[in-house]
Amino acid sequence: MNDKQTLTLLLILFLSATTFGQVSVGGLTCELLKDPAGIEILQPRLGWKIESDQRDIHQTAFQILVASTAEKLAADDADCWNSGKIDSDQSQLISYSGKELQSADNCFWKVKVWTNKGESEWSEPAQWSMGLLYFKDWRARWIGFDKAFPWDDDSFHARLSARYFRKEFNLKKAIQEAKAYIIGLGLYELSLNGEKVGESVLAPSPTDYHENIKYNIYDLTDELKKGENALGVVVGNGRYYATRQHYKGYKIKNFGFPKLLFQLVVKYTDGTTEYVISNNSWKGTADGPIRSNNEYDGEEYDARKEMPGWDTVGFDDSNWLEPEYVEQPDGKYEAQLNTNMKVLKEIKPVSVREQSPGKYILDLGQNFAGWLHLNVNGNAGDTITMRFGEILQDDGELFTTNLRDAQATAQYIVRGAGVESWEPKFVYYGFRYVEITGWPGKPTVDDFIGKVVSDDMAVHGTFSTSNAMINQIYHNAYWGILSNYKGMPVDCPQRNERQPWLGDRTVGCYGENFIFDNAALYRKWVDDIAYSQKPDGTVSDVAPAYWRYYSDNMSWCGTFLMVADMLYQHTGDTEPIIKHYAGMKKWLSYMEARYLEDGIMTKDSYGDWCEPPATIEEGRGKSADQKYPSALISTAYYYHYLELMQRFAKLSGNEQDIAGYQEQAGKVKDAFQITFYKAEQKGYGDNKLTENILAVAMGLVPDLKKEEVVGTIVKTIEETNNGHLSTGVIGTQWIMRTLTENGHADWAWKLATNTTYPSWGYMVENGATTIWELWNGNTAAPKMNSYNHVMMLGDLLIWFYEDLAGIKSSDQAVGYKQIEMKPQLIEGLDSVNASYKSPYGTIASSWTKTKKKFEWSISVPANTSALVSIPASSLNDIKESGKAIAGNAAFNVVKTEDGRVVLEVGSGSYHWTSKL
Ligand code: RAM
């Protein structure tokens, strides 16, 4: 080989190495989840992320291999599906279309991509498993005790002990695979040979058990041993045995006594299968240490009743009972694809002090949902009582009036065996402070750990700014949202409510997604909402409908559509829209048939719920529980839904409906203008801030009048409200974006940074570590006064990410296939640093501003593009990584307007600087 040939060969080797090295593929998902167990659709959708340190990466083709075992996949033996090389830029939501999948199948898969800058290696393998697709797949029987025991008390504050079940069994052959399927209602904890299985707590996710029930799957292949094994299951009440019994004429749904369905499927290496199922060969007792467990009232534990070794082989269960075969619940069984709750964090208390002799107040320093772990050394029978609350009274006592009749108490009776550790299993508390009485000796902070218990959700956004108040509000939002994810989004975690109210999340769910990967939870929730729908079309205000509230209104019930839309916008998933289109259409028709009069939706329930009283004094001591139904609000939302339905009709293949919705929207818009517009006040209805904001936000204002209505909005904020908002739940959902879109980001900023009433900052100034239910939460009548409610966040988080950080999905290519990056420059805000894990990869935006210069680092994931709006009066004022960009073909100039240059860029990291 001569020199030239050697050089050519080296060059070829180098080029092929770099072609591979440039692009890799990972982050594999099935149905947008990592390695899910229990998929129940036959064509699950697959996705992946492409990584590269090169810019402008586009996928041009992909190939997927799916095999029934990990070994087959490793050998490229794709016995389920080999897609072949498919030319496509799609890297999310690609439907499996291989061999027909069966119940409990395992699928191992990998993917390889081709891009404009080379191809990847095969990805690391990922997997999913199928759920039990047919009722006949369940061989187990429901067991339980359909009665109260002498120590139980089924009066109003129902007290029921936990039910314990156990089973020993022998596995005679070598195990190839073992999977357990379990439904423990309301809540269960599973253990095997004395060890808790998995990290879930308070499982499964709650549903309306008349409609559907979630089962969990555990892979026990590694935990089971050949020979003798023992299973233990403790079952608690959850929402199944309702927190309140005999609530005469009241709304609460009760389902019955706790019960269990369990099935272990063991496949031996010789090809045979063995089942261990719940039946009357199990043993059970209700006389264990958990004497009572009630979500509102708390858990009582008598350590003297512990049964050491009850879930291990050889335990003497001769005095345990034979469980009864109990009626199976009505709901259909579904694999739970949203995550269970888990202990997510531990909090060390900040202080403990003696309030009065023997009564201690422990401060955790943060309001949150979860429980307290304790270590205690006492005498048998010592009874420790812990009461939980969110704030203290002026005299330092625990404040519990706002819990209404929720007793929110934990009781621990000491066993007397040296240092004992305990935490509850089947309840949670919403609290920052704990009152402790009956402690043997004097407690110290080291005796306690706060355990934060919420859905195990990935945090996929980060956000911080140069403004300390904004950062604190973000912190409070984070903790508030986390506290209220309980397998469903509840309104509050502390009082005798904790209901998944639809109206609290209408827009909030969209903002929350910037912080938490909540898509699986909201996919479940949109199903919960659909299950709440009655045959006539009405949808509940609370879903799952534990409370029977069917008050018929647009702003709460329409969350049905809004959640499906949020999932579509953030993840590109049309499935919830397709699945529920018929139900949404039915609900709208139902509302129209009953309440539509000449284009006006006359029925509303809550109005602009929890609107702030004009001053603190005006609202002092007053109950906020006032409803002011408003046809303006319901009509504005109705119009918005008619617009959404046009889009949904298209996305779900119901094009024939589009014209009807369009025509109807036109009529409603006209009727809205005629009915509500008042020329003399240059605004709508009673000229309230919320009314004018809705008119603008929903696109109901004729073009010629828009400027003056926006003027009225600003005037209300500036003059009437002295620089504050005056919106309740409804107006706050749109206020920040409406101001910003209409050229008043500065006013949005003022509202966001206010520290006087009413504002988020006012809450912070008054000690809030979460978000309050009421703007005047510290002075209103305490009956309805939660200190951990998320509904007042409105569209604030959306504004933080979309408008301050400039991370927004384009609605032309949803799910962040195309990203719009347009940070607002606001006087007083000097820097923002944010990131968001989109389906395609992490989007980052970090900027700083001085009087003369704007500096901005961004990351755009591979296989997406971004429209980047850089503040600069001309292209010549912009540099990227220190180099002028004028004349560089890599940067496609889309437009120059309003002091901004808008470029279209491909994936990669960029560092922009511009002259201001
Ligand atoms: C209350 C809660 C909830 C709200 C309903 C209307 O009980 O505050 O958040 O949605 O009322």
From TrEMBL:
Alpha-L-rhamnosidase six-hairpin glycosidase domain mapped to chain residues: 461-803
SUPFAM superfamilies referenced in this protein's UniProt entry, alphabetically: Galactose-binding domain-like (SSF49785), Six-hairpin glycosidases (SSF48208)
Alpha-L-rhamnosidase concanavalin-like domain mapped to chain residues: 355-453
GO biological process assignments: carbohydrate metabolic process
Residue ranges of every copy of the Alpha-L-rhamnosidase C-terminal domain listed in the record: 806-883
Keywords: Hydrolase
Gene Ontology molecular function: alpha-L-rhamnosidase activity
Domain of life, per lineage: Bacteria
Reactions it catalyzes: Hydrolysis of terminal non-reducing alpha-L-rhamnose residues in alpha-L-rhamnosides
EC number: 3.2.1.40
Matching InterPro entries: 6-hairpin_glycosidase_sf, 6hp_glycosidase-like_sf, Alpha_rhamnosid, Bac_rhamnosid6H, Bac_rhamnosid_C, Bac_rhamnosid_N, Galactose-bd-like_sf, Ig-like_fold
Pfam families (UniProt xref): Bac_rhamnosid, Bac_rhamnosid6H, Bac_rhamnosid_C, Bac_rhamnosid_N, Ig_Rha78A_N
Broad enzyme group: hydrolase
Domain Bacterial alpha-L-rhamnosidase N-terminal: 173-343
This protein's name: alpha-L-rhamnosidase
